[in-house]
Amino acid sequence: MSTGIPIFFCNPLKITTYNRGKSKIDDMRSIVTLIAFSLTSLLSTVYAQTLTEEDIREIAEKGTEAEIVMQTSTLTQDGFLYYASILADKLLEKKPLSSNYNYRKGFLLLEIYRDYSAAKKHFIIAVRDVDNNYDMYSSKETSAPTDAFFHLASCYHLEENIDSAEYHYKKFIEVSNKGSELLKTTQLRLKQCEEARRQMAAPVNVYLKNIGPSINTNFPEYSPVVSLDGSALYFTSRRPWPNNETERFRDLAIHQYPEDVYVSYLDFDSTWTEPVRLDFCEPKRNEASISVSSDERMIYLYEDTTGNGDIYTTDFYHAKFNEIQPLDFKDVNTESWETHCMMSHNKQRFFFVSDRKGGFGGRDIYVMERKKNGKWTKPENLGPGINTEYDEDSPFIAIDNKTLYFSSNGPKSIGGFDIFKSEMNEDSTWTESVNLGYPLNSTNDDIFYTTTIDGRRGYMTSYRSDGHGEKDIYEIYNDYLGVKDVAILKGLIKTVDNKPIPEDFAINVRLVCIDCEEGTDSRYVYPRLRDGVFMTGLKPCKTYKLEYTDLIDSLLMHTDGFTTFCDTAYQEIYRELLLDVDKRIIIIPDTTIDVPEVVVTDYPNLEFMHYFAYNKNKLTTKKGELKEFVEKVEAQLKEGRESITINVYSSASHVPTKTYKTNENLTKIRAENMKYDLIAHFQSMPEYKDRVTVVIVSTLVQGPEYEKDSANKEKYFPYQYVGLKTE
User: Residue 614: which domain range?
Assistant: First the structure.
């Protein structure tokens, strides 16, 4: 008897590919009850009780084929996909060429692991024999449902084989039941294939790399949040705790460990330190990072204890983050699904994601604005320029407080979630969103994009062929997404004994715009407790006053002021103060003392050149000729040179490189490695911090054309270099 097209084959579960804890439909940690059949004495014993993996494997060994088919279907229908996959393996052992059983395995591989490469092999067998009257509960069923064409098309789509994806999407439309719930999704996917062709024909200039094994593991890592200066990376991981503490709390649907939030810091050699799990994480609970305040004193989290999925917060106090609490903003957390949020850097707008009624469909992005009395407006939908009838998620607002990055899986995506950009107009409306292009976006999910303060270095979550696990964190360098028409205030409050600022010393920085419209730019900026750094965005062509206040006794400790330039696209203002904690004062230089006459001299420009062996691209400031060059720069700074600009010139030859795909990528990597290593070196030393600017001037591919003579090192060696010159 036909059962029609069951929900099982239409991807009913909102087990999102970026793992927001539970599905929205089902509580994946509910007790599994066996329904509709019994399976010898074993099933009678565990009926209405929680199944374990051991129980499932015993069912696989002792059950008949008909019983295993029934159990596989039931478990899949109820969302227990990992258990179902164990039984699907047993069915394939019995009949390895069965279209029915290959379909089941392919479906589960795609849903649990996003492993489209392995799943594709099963779907190729499945589509050999399909039937619109497929019966998922019968062991006599040899065919697969027509949905197999849709899932095979999805695999081709995910691997960026657009021609094959389109063919199989169209084949699914041709053979499927006209009432299939997948038809609407198929039409969307065909539009995304068209968009993919356009984007792939005109790739953007971007360098993207897997952040590497210091962060990424064979478990899922995602939702990165980078600090404004790029020195800290907060992210979510489903890795196990030591001593098997989280083993019994695995997700029964996909067999993953609970979500936890970690932080890693950029070391002096530009590598990421061993990640540390934050204190508020509990072994039995999902906590996923969403966003971090500019001063890194508050983390916004997603947590699903209520069953709906809500936004939580935690504050840094007494040298650790407190227990998480539901966000106390009215009208944000509801009976609907709230998955993400971010506060603007000027604290005037709060963006969040919800699938509440009244939106355009799926999850939409909403905004609340702070009124002059400090209260927040009602949430407003950002409108059709950003939101679609599909899902939008992971809003991130840049330091200029008007450039919004977010992800969407709608018709302008090339597949799955893509990252988009929109800018706020003067009237608070938003421009039509723009896809950030290929290969920054792939045909898989690309989501959770955040950037450093200048917008040129970003981090996101993606599933790609070079990944370490189901999903990984990627680092992106670009030369076209940087913020424009903005000034940046960077400051450092140091203590006289070089110790961290104590928490009970509640110093803050009040920033007041003197000539802005009244009440539009007055805010508090708090230094980070770990290093005393504070940062915020400014408006060009404005005059600002800084007030440094001890909040405990409302003591005004120091005032300062500056005016931002009017005619530069990007500028930075730097302030540094010395704090005496015991005396509770900021030390100001005595302007009445005699200052020795400064003799101005011309400093000679310094030069450096290094020639690389084939495919090599990185040096260290700790040894060799680069160390000598750096020491000469430091010597000039010690002698009184106020600032130095180091220009970087890099080159690659025409000898092909499989490792970096193109020589254009290789020469850019050489330049970027040098730039960021130099910046990391000088920024790590307080006496040189922000006195050295590093600029990439050229990234060339040059020299004689390659003639399959890579052994001729003398021919190509002169064109594989990185050079430095100061000015």
Answer: 607-726
